[in-house]
Amino acid sequence: MNTQLTMTIGGQATSSAASIPVIDPATGEVFAQAPDASQAQLDEAVAAARHAFAPWSATPLNERRAILGNVAGVLMTHLDTLATLLTQEQGKPLARAKEEIMISAHWCAEVAKLTPETITLEDTPDTLVQVRRVPLGVVGAIVPWNFPVALAFFKIAPALLTGNTVVLKPSPNTPLTALKLGELLRDVLPPGVLNVISGGDALGPWLSSHPGIDKISFTGSTATGRKVMASASATLKRLTLELGGNDAAIVMPDVDVDAIAPVLFWGAFANSAQFCLAIKRLYIHEDIYDKLADALAKLARQVRVGPGANPESELGPVQNQALFERLKGLVADCQSHGWRLLAGGQPISTNGYFFPATLVDNPPDSSRIVQEEPFGPILPLLRFRAIDEVIQRANHSPYGLGGSVWCRDQSLALSIAQRLQTGTVWVNEIHTLSPHKPMAGHKQSGLGVEQGIEGMLAYTQPQTISLKRSST
Ligand code: NAD
Asked: What local confidence, expressed as pLDDT, does residue 385 receive?
């Protein structure tokens, strides 16, 4: 497979003296090497982005919109190549990898329609006061391995639209699709506007503390987010942090259990549950607990887990060995306390990191599986009786990313939704993400906003110009 992908610095192909191994999670074997950028190469990437900033930010907005449209076109033209690479390094089924590339193209096309408006506060014969939105400069975009392409474009699209330049750093676990994108976009974007560099564990801290970076847009775990925030303080970098979650879903007794069971199942297990906004705590009213638990267990036993390249697979392996081991540890913890597993639990014995959809029957709120973000296919089902009780339990978390309410009575559902302390709440649907809906992690799930007008404006700062019209 591809071992020759290069970094993109100032529009040029750049290799490195050292390399990092890339593992196919479906086999556990190294199948490629990626460049391991040196600190000097990071400096070059930041310098290239800085050099490109003045002309790019002066490029008329409509031209930048058109170029983002061309980026979307490149993604679609190379859909099969990119998706194949994504499946091989990330593990997800090929159809889902294609979906991720298409979502990224859609994001570019939709974000290109947004406008960082200039607001006129006063326009009189004496005075003109306007607030413009000006770009920040060089953005360091740091992304995790669960949706390596979509999460990169959630940052690249608004950053470029608003006139910033970008240094993109993918996760060491999934560097290849990002490197390939850098290569494909060399002819589409002016040199230095998008730089892509890969590397090991040292590269992230170098980037987030680099004095030449004006903003860090980071998606990853809360623990790393804290470190990024600390290292950004020296030069007062602007920050957007999209961090971990432990999303609760609350299922009221009036739902149609058979109809919602598959929706809840995929809300929890899509992308092998390696999804910040996956349902991670499923609170089920006691009147329907047994029926819904049975329906979910049936789905968990039926779902086909296998290599992403196999068209039969509905769920791929989990992405890396550390996560695979952690999931085994969480199951062992449940078993040691005597909590019943309704499905799954045993790793599927092949060479890759295949873990079955696993359901835990009503463990206590204090258990690790309820308190921690598993970030893999283990879901606790939790029985509740009263609305106040379940809202209190759902909110009892340091996280506040997303949540969902499932209830036929819409006014009751909305009243519950409004009491959840999370940035997004879905009611009778889930994961309807959009480039136009702001997503803001509350509590320790994040800082700032991605998506929508507010997310786009987070790549700008206001500049107030106050003009006295009468001559002095
Ligand atoms: P991670 O925090 O380990 O790594 C994320 C990225 O940060 C990687 O590119 C990594 O190389 C880099 N990094 C690591 N240490 C760094 C440091 N000190 N300074 C700068 N960069 C550093 O996260 P992960 O394991 O790759 O991803 C899983 C986590 O991401 C989960 O907690 C999940 O909930 C979260 N996530 C959040 C969202 C969201 O939008 N809120 C989306 C996807 C994933």
From this structure: 98
Residue 422 sits in a domain whose CATH number is 3.40.309.10
In this structure, the answer to whether residues 268 and 150 fall within a common structural domain is no
Which tokens in the block code for residue 61? 């907005």
Q: Are residues 272 and 361 in the same domain?
A: yes
Mode of pairing for the β-strands spanning 29-36 and 18-24:
antiparallel
The structural domain count of the chain equals 2
Taking the centre of ligand 1 as the mean of its atom positions, its distance from the CA of residue 243, in whole angstroms, is 7
Task: Identify whether the C-beta of residue 204 lies closer than 8 Å to the C-beta of residue 214.
Answer: no
**Beta-carbon count within 10 A of 379 CB:** 29
Clarify whether residues 297 and 417 are in a common domain: yes
The reply to whether 32 falls in a domain is yes
For the chain, the 3-state helix, strand and coil shares in percent, each to the nearest 5, are 40, 25, 35
Pocket of ligand 1 (CB under 6 A): 142-146, 151, 169, 171-172, 204-205, 208, 219-221, 224, 227-228, 242-245, 276, 373, 375, 401, 441, 446
Q: Does residue 286 have an active-site annotation?
A: no
Q: Please answer whether residues 363 and 370 qualify as being in contact, where contact means their C-beta atoms are separated by less than 8 angstroms.
A: yes
Residues of the chain with pLDDT under 50: 1-2
Q: How many CB atoms lie within 10 A of CB 433?
A: 18
Tell me: do 40 and 59 sit in the same domain.
Answer: yes
Active-site hit among 242, 334, 373, 450: 242
Asked if 276 is an active-site residue, the reply is yes
Same domain? For 252 and 233 the reply is no
Annotated active-site residue in 44, 100, 108, 276: 276
The pLDDT value recorded for residue 1 is: 47
- Residue-level pLDDT at 2: 47
- Domain of residue 456 covers 7-243+445-465
Q: Measured in angstroms, how far is the CA atom of residue 378 from the centroid of ligand 1?
A: 20
User: Candidates 39, 219, 239, 449: which one to mutate for ligand 1, based on the most atoms within 8 Å of Cβ?
Assistant: 219
Which of 22, 100, 139, 142 for mutating ligand 1's site (highest number of atoms within 8 Å of CB)?
142
**Ligand 1 centre and the CA of 292: distance in Å?**
33
C-alpha dist (Å) from residue 292 to 257, 314, 356, 379: 6, 21, 19, 13
